[in-house]
UniProtKB/TrEMBL annotation:
An example Gene Ontology CC term for this record: membrane
Superkingdom as given in the UniProt entry: Bacteria
Protein's recorded name: Nitrite extrusion protein
GO molecular function: nitrate transmembrane transporter activity
Keyword Cell membrane recorded: no
């Protein structure tokens, strides 16, 4: 580390990402450095947000006194808190500075990590206390919104898709990474040492905060976008996109938190010990969120080529069939006594993995639709010149990204609550929840078709579709 990096000024007063000459002269390097450490901080934030999805694997019912239904609430509470935290986190970088807020929000994650370590080591703790401690993990859910807003300001329009996609994907992978850490711990020392996971993330959080402090910058010419958010929400399409984001990102984060628990319940039903069930669940659970994270940028690329509305529609239709696999498997499982057969377990895993991949693709396509919607609406603003239209479109898009992310995260709460209700019903299985998911994806497909495809003239570019990109030019 050079002395220059320690002495440099962390505040940038005038940043114009669209200045090509300044970009080539050094701004590109500054933006890349901030992007790298923003990804690191957001990645750790996602891991802490989902820490209770792995802690429940270390909590056998005979030791902690918390049944499967209670554990679904333990992973739903952080999702709920994280969803609400995304709105204030969206405006924080402009007010406090991207570097300052990244350092502060990273250090704040030490609190839920330390609390989790302390109370998970105390099996006699009340269930209410565990719920409160789990709620603090929701702080990690807000990091996505502040990270995306901050990086959005650093990059020019022609490179935003790549930069934001990389930032979002790097953050999402924090979910399978903490699950892999848990798998390593369970495979080596069993499911009795959850504090090892917490200790590893106390170090990771500290390194993320240190890196942000040393290498990131504050852009002082940014403005808080609460006013832009209020204006964006006056448009009908903003609410439609937020609803569709429940089906894409909400599915990703909800299943990420619940998949391991569903697997563990099935393995326990097969007569495995809690330690064996935890190990086998951990060996599989990380695959879903990992593949869903990898699929996200491909959804954006497909949306660029074929159209955001079309890819989103096709995705929800495919998710309906994937949920249908779970429904059919659940009905076959319910029709016979005893644990699921090997074929049925394979079908459960296949259905969930498909939902993860498809939710990742849909995540990318719906995310790409947001700037395209406001780009189209900006063309109807006769009161603005060309530069004003571009600025208005970027402002509306940035505001809606944060709000849609908050609403979408509520889908994770919905998934875990529905699964819990299904398990405590007379059926004592997840089949009823699978029916609800199937019906919801049908509604999402119908809404996508009606709003973005059905009423468009054959030759008109539908709202939510990007203009074709000429050969040799980067998408804007």
């Amino acid at each position: 580390m050079s002395a220059l990096s320690l002495r440099r000024n962390r505040d940038i007063e005038d940043w114009d990402a669209e200045d090509v000459e300044a970009w080539e002269a050094g701004n590109r390097t500054i933006a890349r450095r901030n992007l790298i450490w923003s990804i690191v901080a957001e990645h750790v934030g996602f891991s802490i947000w989902s820490i209770w999805s792995v802690m429940v694997l270390f909590m056998p019912e005979d030791v902690y006194g918390i049944d499967a239904a209670g554990k679904f609430y333990l992973v739903a509470v952080p999702t709920l808190v994280g969803a609400f935290m995304r709105i204030p986190y969206t405006v924080a970088p402009a007010r406090y500075g991207g570097r300052n807020w990244t350092v502060f929000s990273a250090l704040l994650l030490l609190l839920p990590t330390a609390l989790t370590w302390y109370f998970i080591a105390s099996p006699g703790t009340s269930y209410t206390t565990f719920l409160v401690v789990a709620a603090f993990a929701g702080l990690g859910g807000g990091n996505f919104a502040s990270s995306m807003t901050n990086i959005n300001a650093f990059y020019p329009q022609r490179l935003k898709g790549w930069a934001l996609g990389l930032n979002a994907g790097g953050g999402n992978i924090g979910v399978p990474v903490i699950q892999l850490v848990a798998l390593l711990v369970i495979a080596t020392v069993g499911n009795t040492r959850p504090e090892i996971v917490c200790a590893a993330y106390l170090v990771a959080v500290s390194l993320a905060a240190l890196g942000a402090a040393l290498f990131m910058d504050n852009l002082r010419n940014q403005r808080s976008n609460l006013g832009a958010l209020a204006e964006a929400l006056r448009h009908r399409h903003s609410w439609v996109m937020s609803f569709l984001y429940i089906g894409t990102f909400g599915s990703f984060i909800g299943f990420s938190f619940a998949f391991g628990q569903v697997l563990q319940i099935n393995f326990l039903a097969g007569g495995e010990t809690p330690a064996q069930a935890a190990l086998h669940a951990a060996q599989i659970a990380f695959l879903g969120p990992l593949l869903g994270s990898i699929a996200r940028p491909y959804g954006g690329k497909l949306a660029d080529r074929i159209g955001g509305g079309r890819i989103t529609l096709y995705t929800f239709v495919a998710m309906t069939f994937a949920a249908g696999i779970l429904v059919a498997t659940g009905m076959a499982d319910d029709a016979r006594s005893g644990a699921p057969t090997g074929a049925q377990m394979g079908a459960y895993v296949a259905g969930f993995i498909l939902l993860f991949v498809l939710s990742g693709i849909g995540n990318g396509s719906t995310y790409k639709m947001i700037p395209s919607i406001f780009e189209a609406k900006a063309q109807g603003r006769d009161d603005l010149d060309r530069a004003g239209k571009a600025a208005w479109s970027r402002s509306m898009s940035g505001a809606l990204i944060g709000f849609a992310g908050a609403v979408g995260a509520l889908g994770g709460v919905f998934i875990n609550i529905v699964l819990r209700a299904s398990y405590v019903s007379d059926a004592k299985s997840a089949t009823n929840a699978f029916w609800v998911f199937l019906g919801f994806y049908v509604v999402c497909a119908v809404v996508t078709w009606c709003v973005f495809l059905r009423l468009q003239a054959p030759r008109a570019r539908p709202v939510g579709e990007s203009a074709p990109v000429p050969a040799g030019r980067a998408p804007r």
